[in-house]
Design a protein that fits this description.
By secondary structure, the protein is α/β, with parallel strands linked by helices. The chain is about 25% helix and about 15% strand. The strands form ten sheets. Strands 1-2-3-4-6-9 form a six-stranded mixed β-sheet. It has a six-stranded mixed β-sheet with strand order 12-19-18-15-13-14, sandwiched between helices. Helix 16 links the parallel strand 13 and strand 14. The longest helix is centred in the N-terminal third of the chain and has 18 residues. The protein is globular, with a radius of gyration of 27 Å. About 60% of the residues are buried. The protein binds 2-acetamido-2-deoxy-beta-D-glucopyranose (10 copies). GO terms for molecular function: beta-glucosidase activity.
Length: about 850
């Protein structure tokens, strides 16, 4: 099994790559970044907070399982082998049906009668933890109603290192604290609905380009391996790992490892990432599943901490698997210790039990590959004709929640008194982005086009619309109700007609524009997932410039997957208001109407910075390989300085800063107070784990694993745990099976003895050492509504850590508070030990530096009205 062995080495040191990869030309011949090995893979802890009952149930179940049943539970049956985007083998003897893993982070993908929710990024713009939880709960309920076991979301990777990143909209924000709080609330919501959440994509998955070798070939680049995100330890902890720590602390049941490499080791076999950071330091008790085809080895990935392979085949429909038969063989021949496969099975079963699932599962009532009622249940094989879709309506009353989230996630960037609208005499709506996709809202599969209004971006993070309320239809209905005159032009390319219309007397013009992006397997207009520029699509800038040259009251609404350049026109006096409406989901038109007419007072705050130029961000996508035919090397050399941290460091002028957003009322900040808590001194965790437990036993006679021909027939291309022959080498179909040169196992990889606990890790506390979350300071401030309408305000707590290498300020807490006119409310925020610390790579722990620390309370990252020094 050559690849497993070679890559086992790759997962643990760079030396294996030295022979395979040519020295990079543009990289000054320095050594490639590498990952240090960490073995053995940490096993579950029966006493972990929140996991005790689940562990006990899992132990009871797993103790009854045979080796082949355990292998079945860990291995997908192959691409399109069953109804969901991913399913593992069933355990018929114990009454467990095949588990269903299904996209997406905005709703149930590839089915019908489901809702489409606003994107994660739009939800983050609400800064409202209550509504973010409600969104998670509702999405969880819809997945539950379809028979899904694991919902493939939410997303904290990409975090949003580069504004062009194609999938940034699926996540929340380039700020780790906003993302951390949002991902934790979303996970709690999803899992309270009885569905296992999956925090993805772990980690460093910051661009679509070069994430997969085959995909790169599709757009003209030949590379031997996927791009490597080279991230130093401090940046990893203070930025990219931070929200995953919050996800683990929130009890997330699964984590998906990503396509790309980190430090030249694939994420799904990188023992430093999976064994050390995730399972050892953060104390993650759930299971790690691979992204679809992100597994590259069998034994090596098992020992490095992977627990489930998706969709199970080496490549889609190859009929081969790194696991399945190979994992059975590897356990029987002693390469993968029994405790490791037991741990995989324990982690998967415990996650199900933790969210309240039982061995008896409700049926899966939909099929991802067709909306037809009848079809082949094994779609890839063309076998098993039966009813496969029951068209179950799982939407409940989620439409009103969706309308509310998208309204509250809309950011009012500019308002010269034009808004809110009040029975305008003549409302004119301009732009393709206000109208429908003429071929239907679901015409382009996985939303692989930018036609009509942007309600959702593209890729596997999509879902089918049950309907899409366009801005045109909702605004027209409002206009008719008000007795306004109303006309719309739903194309960006009708200059003379547009001029004739908006030049008339009494016009209030609302121009809708957009910028789209998505996942790397789809190219839309030359954008390979990642955006190729930060400008508006379809001539949007010219449309705005034209309309505003003809009309003194031009309101601009932007639907986009991240910031766009507004530099050329935002300051025009004729552009009287600008709104960012994110990626709003099915209620788009209703949500924007609520905001434009003041039925909802805007309270959204931008979850990213709006720079004047593309270059001003300091980070960008690597669009061209820089390492010959070897893995492109993406050095995250900016460290923690992304988004506002970079702009602040360089003191770069910008257009709209992180955290900024207007309201129809005004707020005044006063009276900051700091209260210190007695949290005691930090004690690094000491002691050891228990030895690795194993549950049940297994036969070493391969005859016991033969495919039971008499019981059922082998589905074509399907992945099973069985062997076809008792000759191990022949059964593995691997010419290198058992070769001496291929016997490399990383030191300690099979060691099941008690292991030392890490200082920064918890003792049974997922998320890391409990004391990291001790509250050290409580900060309060008074917020007064000085305007004339009720509104929500989002006061934000920033911290200066004070060191020469620290960002000017970092967000640490926030709240969304409803305040009536003339009333004052108290904003209350907390600083934990982790909040006040830096990661010390030498100590391998969080340390509070001796630099003076200042806290700020303000309405954005650059409007910090109140401050206080911490003592
Ligand atoms: C990547 O390499 C950097 C620089 O040596 C190191 O600080 C960091 O811990 C490594 N990260 C991983 C995941 O191996
Ligand atoms: C493994 O899963 C397959 C497919 O779900 C099922 O047919 C088979 O019976 C399972 N094998 C065992 C040993 O449980
Ligand atoms: C076992 O894994 C190897 C790759 O490591 C693969 O070539 C082979 O086909 C696999 N065997 C089976 C039965 O899937
Ligand atoms: C054990 O099985 C695995 C999976 O097929 C194979 O890669 C490895 O070479 C085998 N090792 C031995 C010692 O037979
Ligand atoms: C949809 O957009 C594509 C380009 O993305 C374009 O070729 C096609 O004509 C559009 N269809 C409609 C109906 O507008
Ligand atoms: C409509 O336009 C006319 C002509 O400019 C102007 O006299 C009138 O005040 C406007 N009415 C409103 C409601 O804006
Ligand atoms: C940026 O990309 C979009 C989408 O592909 C395209 O419509 C637009 O023309 C591009 N902008 C520039 C300035 O090239
Ligand atoms: C604003 O609109 C008026 C009326 O059409 C026009 O005369 C003027 O040039 C516009 N100003 C700008 C800066 O576009
Ligand atoms: C095992 O045998 C079945 C037929 O019983 C066949 O369809 C399948 O391809 C074989 N698998 C392997 C890995 O040889
Ligand atoms: C802190 O607030 C005081 C009072 O408003 C102000 O004078 C001072 O400049 C602020 N300090 C910082 C570092 O922002």
């Amino acid at each position: 099994m050559k690849s497993a062995v070679v890559l086992a080495l790759a997962a643990s040191s760079s030396s294996a790559l030295a022979g395979a990869v040519k020295p990079p030309q543009q990289l000054n011949k320095r050594a490639l970044a590498h990952s240090d090995p960490f073995y053995p893979s940490p096993w579950m802890d029966p006493n972990a907070d929140g996991w005790q009952a689940a562990y006990a149930k899992a132990k009871e179940f797993v103790s009854q399982m045979t080796l082949m049943e355990k292998v079945n539970l860990t291995t997908g049956v192959g691409w399109m082998g069953e109804q969901c985007v991913g399913q593992v083998g069933a355990i018929p003897r114990l009454g467990l049906r095949s588990l269903c893993m299904q996209d997406s982070p905005v709703g149930v993908r590839l089915t019908d009668y489901n809702s489409v929710f606003p994107s994660g990024q739009t939800a983050a713009a609400t800064w409202d933890t209550g509504i973010i939880y409600q969104r998670g709960l509702a999405m969880g309920q819809e997945h539950k109603g379809k028979g899904v076991n694991v919902m493939l979301g939410p997303v904290a990777g990409p975090l949003g290192r580069s504004p062009e990143g194609g999938r940034n909209w699926e996540g929340f924000s380039p700020d780790p604290v906003l993302t951390g709080i949002a991902i934790a609330e979303t996970i709690k919501g999803i899992q309270d609905a009885g569905v296992v959440a999956c925090a993805k994509h772990y980690i460093g998955n910051e661009q679509e380009h070069f994430r997969q070798v085959g995909e790169a070939k599709g757009y003209g680049f030949t590379i031997a391996e996927s791009v490597s995100s080279n991230i130093d330890d401090k940046t990893m902890h203070e930025l990219y790992l931070w929200p995953f720590a919050d996800a683990v602390r929130a009890g997330v049941g699964s984590v998906m490892c990503s396509y790309q490499q980190t430090n030249n080791s694939y994420s799904c076999q990188n023992s430093k990432l999976l064994n050390d950071l995730l399972k050892n330091e953060l104390g993650f008790q759930g299971f790690v599943m691979s992204d679809w085809q992100a597994q590259h080895t069998g034994v090596a990935s098992a020992l490095a901490g992977l627990d489930m392979t998706m969709p199970g085949d080496t490549e889609f429909n190859s009929a081969k698997s790194f696991w399945g038969t190979n994992l059975t063989l590897a356990v029987v021949n002693g390469t993968v210790p029994e405790w490791r496969i037991d741990d995989m099975a324990m982690r998967i079963m415990a996650s199900l039990f933790k969210v309240g699932q039982t061995v008896e599962q409700p049926p899966i009532n939909f099929d991802s590959w067709t909306l037809d009622t009848y079809g082949n249940i094994h779609m890839a094989a063309g076998q098993g004709y039966q009813q496969i879709n029951w068209h179950v309506d799982v939407r409940a009353n989620h439409g009103s929640l969706i309308r509310d989230i998208a309204a509250k996630g809309t950011v009012l960037l500019k308002n010269n008194g034009a808004l809110p609208l009040n029975k305008p005499k003549f409302l004119v709506v301009v732009g393709e982005d206000a109208g429908p996709n003429l071929q239907g809202p679901n015409a382009c599969s996985d939303r692989s086009c930018d036609n009509g209004t942007l309600g959702m971006a593209w890729g596997s993070g999509s879902a089918n619309f049950p309907y899409l309320v366009t801005p045109d239809s909702a605004l027209q209905a409002q206009a008719i109700q008000d007795g306004s005159r109303y006309e719309s032009i739903l194309t960006n390319y009708a200059a003379s007609q547009t001029k004739a219309l908006v030049s008339q007397a009494n016009v209030t013009a609302v121009v809708f524009v957009n910028a789209d992006s998505g996942e790397g397997y789809i190219n839309v207009d030359g954008n390979e997932g990642d955006r190729k520029n930060l400008t508006l699509w379809k001539n949007g800038d010219d449309l705005i410039k034209n309309v505003s040259s003809w009309c003194t009251n031009t309101i601009v609404v932007i639907h986009s997957t991240g910031p766009v350049l507004v530099t050329d026109w935002y300051n025009s006096p004729n552009v009287t208001a600008i709104l960012w409406a994110g990626v709003p989901g099915q209620e788009s038109g209703n949500s924007i109407t609520d905001i434009l007419y003041g039925k909802v007072n805007p309270s959204g705050k931008t979850p990213f910075t709006w720079g004047a130029t593309r270059e001003s961000y300091g980070t960008d996508i690597l669009y061209t390989p820089n390492n010959g035919a070897g893995a492109p090397q993406d050095d995250f050399s900016e460290g923690v300085f992304i988004d506002y941290r970079y702009f602040d460091k360089k003191n770069t002028p910008l257009i709209y800063e992180f955290g900024y957003g207007l309201s129809y009322t005004t707020f005044e900040y006063s009276n900051i107070k700091v209260q210190k808590s007695n949290a005691g001194t930090y004690k690094p965790t000491t002691g050891t784990t228990a030895a690795a437990p194993s549950f049940g036993n297994f036969s070493t006679n391969l005859a016991d694993y033969l495919f039971p021909k008499d019981q059922f027939s082998w589905v074509w291309q399907y992945i099973y745990p069985y062997v076809n022959t008792t000759d191990a080498k022949a059964a593995s179909q691997d010419p290198h099976y058992g070769q001496t040169a291929d016997q490399f196992l990383p030191p300690h990889a099979t060691d099941g003895s008690a292991q030392p606990l890490l200082g920064s890790a918890g003792k049974s506390s997922p998320g890391g050492n409990r004391q990291l979350y001790d509250v050290m300071y409580t900060i309060t401030a008074d917020i007064k509504n000085t305007g004339s309408v009720t509104g929500n305000e989002v006061p934000q707590l920033y911290l200066s850590l004070g060191g020469p290498d620290d960002p000017k300020v970092v967000l640490r807490d926030f709240d969304c508070i409803r305040i009536d006119p003339g009333q004052t409310s108290t904003f209350r925020a907390q600083l934990t030990r982790r909040d006040l610390s830096n990661w010390d790579p030498v100590a391998q722990d969080w340390v509070i530096s001796s630099y003076p620390k200042t806290v700020y309370v303000g309405r954005s990252s650059r409007k910090l009205e109140l401050n206080a020094t911490l003592t």
